[in-house]
Design brief:
By secondary structure, the protein is of the alpha+beta class. It is built from 9 helices and 12 strands. It has helices at 18-37, 50-56, 61-82, 88-132, 183-200, 207-219, 312-315, 327-331, 339-353; strands at 2-3, 139-140, 143-150, 159-168, 171-182, 240-247, 253-259, 265-268, 271-274, 297-300, 306-310, 363-370. The radius of gyration is 29 Å and the shape is elongated.
Length: 374
């Protein structure tokens, strides 16, 4: 089963938050009343600038301008009641309030334009990502599967986390990976890797040849500056970390090749065992810089076992004190009711671990349970 928790419904750009609007109007009323009743040498008019300034932080330019106009009208009322509207002190206060109101209204307009751009970016990126990340089937041969994708909320930056599973005559093949970068470019790179995986999973008989095909596809990406995943103007090098594995139907093992990816976790009888390979490969797109091959390693995978594959957005999530999410310890608390229950448990716990329930980076997880021996 494929879990995709929906994003919280976003407020329409520029839509005022009604409870907050009471604050600037209450401030205007309080300052006006106190200023009228204050002694002649006490002037509280300058405090009125706080009303439009506060409004600009959460409302659009129209509401900000309206609050600014109300503040100016309040300042004029104070001037008329206390002296005259042409009093030099009050005249300068009114002029300053008008100028500041115009400035913060312009700020609210620019903020609204920026929010619209971010909303459009997220909408396009999410649509592209949903096309790239097809839902996984909940059953493939002797395996039950579940997956989840949690998008970060920071600056609407969609990441390049990816996963896919393919049923072949050689068993079930899976990939979980993470493309460096954010936004539509990362989604495009993820689409490249997934397209190559889906094309080659049925054609390549052995796992090293499949991973070599993925490496060749990434290295030949025309968007790279030198054909090896290194982008022009990029301060570093780009690479796609990936864990590629195959589980044969009639073998109680899983064969794994890790390309710079965090090790999967094997859950067995209340224990959590990291599946660390002895000879990991570099991330896809970077093997030309390292003289290495793609050596698969076999691990026992018996009925009742669960394998959890994930991206670094899970283990790099921090709490308010900066502590990383302890995935192995939390996975050990799995209730043991199948892959869906495991991912629901981890998602709720991960979001509770993160401040405000918002992740700093996208995170993906795939849980695989072997339920029969053939």
């Amino acid at each position: 089963m494929d879990h995709r928790p929906p994003h919280p419904s976003h407020r329409q750009v520029g839509e005022p938050r009604l409870p907050l609007l009471a604050v600037p109007f209450a401030l205007i009323a309080a300052v006006t009343v106190v200023d009228v009743l204050a002694p002649p040498d006490v002037h509280l008019g300058p405090f009125l600038v706080a009303a439009p300034a506060l409004t600009a932080s959460f409302a659009g330019p129209r509401m900000t301008g309206f609050v600014g106009a109300v503040a100016v009208a309040a300042q004029v009322t104070v001037a008329v009641v206390r002296t005259t509207a042409t009093d030099l002190n009050h005249t300068f206060q009114i002029i300053a309030l008008v100028l500041i109101s115009i400035f913060v209204t312009l700020f609210a307009h620019l903020r609204e334009v920026h929010e619209k751009q971010l909303t459009q970016l997220r909408s396009v990126a999410e649509a592209a990502q949903e096309v790239v990340l097809r839902p996984l089937r909940d059953r493939m041969g002797p395996l039950r599967l579940a997956s989840v994708y949690l998008a970060a909320e920071a600056e609407a930056q969609i990441g390049g986390d990816l996963y896919a599973a393919t049923r072949t005559p050689h068993g079930t093949r899976l990939i979980v990976g993470d493309v460096r970068g954010k936004g539509l470019e990362a989604v495009g790179d993820a689409a490249l890797v997934l397209g190559a995986f889906r094309a080659a999973a049925h054609q390549e008989a052995d796992l090293p040849t499949l991973v070599a095909y993925l490496e060749a596809a990434v290295a030949a990406d025309p968007d790279g500056a030198d054909g090896a995943g290194v982008r022009a103007g990029d301060p570093g090098v780009c690479g796609t970390t990936a864990a590629v594995c195959v589980s044969a139907d009639r073998e109680m093992t899983v064969r794994l090749i890790s390309c710079g990816h965090p090790p999967p976790l094997l859950l067995r009888g209340g224990r959590v065992i990291p599946l660390e390979v002895d000879h990991p490969a570099p991330p896809l797109g970077l093997t030309r810089y390292v003289d290495t091959g793609f050596a698969p390693q076999s691990f026992s995978f018996e009925p009742g076992d669960m394998i959890l594959l994930y991206t670094d957005g899970v283990i790099e999530a921090r709490d308010a004190e900066g502590t990383f999410y302890p995935l192995p310890e939390r996975a050990a608390d799995w209730p043991g009711d199948g892959p869906d229950a495991l991912l629901r448990h981890l998602c709720a716990d991960l979001l509770a671990h993160s401040p405000g329930g918002s992740l700093g980076d996208d995170a993906a997880m795939v849980a695989i349970e072997r339920v029969t021996g053939a």
